[in-house]
Structure formats: C-alpha cells, structure tokens
Specification:
Blueprint: H1 8-31, H2 43-55, H3 63-94, H4 96-109, H5 118-125, H6 130-153, H7 157-165, H8 170-205, H9 213-222, H10 226-257
Helix pairs in contact: 2-10, 3-4, 3-6, 3-8, 3-9, 5-6, 6-8, 8-10, 9-10
Length: 260
C-alpha cells in the first residue's frame, strides 16, 4: 500500500537535501586527493567547463551546436518511428492477418538492443546522418508500435461494431474509431519511445558521428578531460528531462480533455 502523497514543498525540500548531499560527497571525494582532478573534477570544475564549452568550440563546434546536431538526428529518427509505428499498430489491431505477419519478425527484432545496430549503421552509412537515425529508430519504434497496438486492441467492441454497421470503410474506422480511442496509450508510448530514442542517439554518436554531444564526449575522453565528458552528460540529461516534460504535459492535457 502506497503512503500518503508528499506535499509539493516537502518534496522540493527532500530533493534539495538529496542534491546537496550528492554534491557534498562529490566535492569531498574530488578534494581528498585520492585521484587526479583530471579524472575526478570537482562540481565547480564541471560548471566552469560547461560554461566554457557554451562559448568556445570543442571538437569543431560549441556545446549548443553539438546539441542542435544531436537533436536533429533525434527528431528525424523519432519522427520516423512515429510515422511507421502508429499506422502499423493500427493495422495490426484491425487486421488479424497483418498482426500474424508482423508479430514474429517484430518480436525478434525488438529484443535486439539499439546499440547492437551500431556496426551495421557504421557499415551502411559511415558517419552520415543515416547511421544515428537508424539506431534512434530501432530504439524508439518498438514502444510506439506496442502502445498503439494495445490501445487500439482495448477499444470497446461496441464502437467497432457500430462503425461497421454504419458502413465505415477500414480507413475511416481506423482513423475515426481506433486512433482517437488509442491516443492516451499512444502518448504514453511516445514518452517511453522518446527516452529510448534519446539514449540510443548518444550511444550512436559515440561511434558513428562526427558531431553531436556523444561525439563531444568521445573527444573529451580522448583528451583526458573528464570535465568535458561530464559536461556532455549534464547536457544530455537536461535535454532528456525537457523532452519528457513536454510529452508529459501533452499526456496530461489529453487525459484532462478526456476526463481521465
């Protein structure tokens, strides 16, 4: 049984205490002399390096330019996953024969980690945009398809029967009955998909990219600059949180309109 929900102010206080404790332990470890500051910089070293990367190019670009390059790849792969996953999920839910054809191959592919596609992406696309987009797609596609399929399959049968009795075509039934009913499930899947896609992007950029935050981190590691690597990690985390917040608000807005 879950305990009572914490108040907003108490939650904020506990968050602040936890963050302060983490930074304190980190600072003590960095200042203890147990290891070189090159390998374990203090928090303020990372902040200073982050600010420096914002204005000074590193590995060819500033931090924001690397982020923009990463986000372009993410947006392309994520949009492709949505464009394929939603229609295919609806088709699988509406036509049993499509489900029987697609499911075996999909079930085999979705258990392959997106990072496992890196060697193929490197061979097929080199360091162009195609490699990272493929890896992002393979990370983002399964949650979109699964949630669309489940949302459409859970539609009340009476609505489907009513559409059929009124002579609705397959296309109209899918777009006007299945799709609206599956929207909450689809949006929930988009949050998962976006998170996996963003994580997959960073893994791809570590190997098959010549720009982006992952590439910046690789160059930081090559130059033994842990502060640079950590700055990239901070940027990745902040952007990931912003993407999730945007999708969470979209989900809450849809649920509010539907009275969920």
């Amino acid at each position: 049984m879950l305990g009572p929900r914490l108040g907003t102010s108490r939650t904020a206080l506990l968050t602040a205490v936890g963050t302060a404790a983490f930074l304190l332990v980190w600072s003590v470890a960095a200042l203890s002399g147990m290891t070189s500051r090159n390998f374990l910089p203090a928090p303020w070293d990372v902040v200073l390096r982050f600010a420096q990367l914002v204005v000074e190019p590193f590995a060819g670009f500033t931090l924001f330019e690397h982020l923009l390059s990463s986000f372009r790849r993410f947006a392309t792969g994520f949009a492709l996953a949505v464009a394929v996953g939603i229609p295919l999920g609806l088709l699988m839910a509406w036509f049993p024969w499509v489900d029987r054809i697609v499911s075996p191959a999909f079930d085999a592919v979705r258990f392959v980690a997106p990072i496992a596609w890196v060697p193929f992406a490197a061979l097929w696309f080199g360091t162009g945009i195609g490699g990272p987009v493929l890896i992002i797609f393979m990370g983002a596609f399964p949650p979109v398809l699964i949630n669309t399929y489940r949302g459409a399959r859970n539609v009340d049968r009476k609505y489907i029967e009513a559409a059929r009795m009124l002579g609705a075509s397959h296309f109209r039934a899918m777009t006007q009955v299945l799709l609206p009913a599956a929207v909450p499930s689809i949006v929930a899947g988009l949050r998962i998909s976006a998170g996996l896609g963003w994580q997959s992007l960073v893994g791809a950029e570590l190997i098959v990219a010549s720009s982006g935050v992952g590439y910046l981190m690789v160059k930081g590691q090559a130059s033994v600059s842990t502060a640079t690597v950590m700055s990239g990690m901070v940027a990745i985390g902040v952007v990931g949180v912003l993407i999730d917040i945007a999708l969470r608000r979209l989900q809450q807005s849809i649920e509010t309109r539907r009275g969920l």
